[in-house]
Amino acid sequence: MAKGRRSDFVPRAAQPQGGQAGMMAKIAQMQEDMRKTQEALEAELVNVTAAGGAITMVITGHQRVQSIKLDPALVDPNDIAMLEDTLVAAVNEAILASQEYAAKRLESVTGGISIPGLT
Fold first, then answer.
1. What would the pLDDT profile of 21-31 be if each residue is shown by its tens digit?
2. DSSP state letters, 13-58
3. Which domains does the chain have, with CATH numbers?
4. How far apart are CA 93 and CA 57, in angstroms?
5. What is the pLDDT of residue 57?
């Protein structure tokens, strides 16, 4: 080794290409992966049970309720307010489950980087 040379020295021409162009390519790939994941979430379904299993809901990864099934025992014509409150709680629980599912799917694309508006 030449006197004064570092052992880890690599001439500039031999260094891997990357820099700004490489970063831009990585960002473009991440954007494409995010687009594909967002598209897939629209069709992916999350099953949620609430009210001790009396309500079963199916919701998409985009927080769109697809179906609600009620146990007939939950329906009391003399207590509509209780049914309404239970449905609100169940819908909110389903939305939260869908958001958590979407966040996990998107985290696999972003590698845990928080991107405002997407997670």
1. 888 888 888 88
2. GGSPS-HHHHHHHHHHHHHHHHHHHHHHHHH-EEEEEEGGGTEEEE
3. 18-110 (3.30.1310.10)
4. 10
5. 96
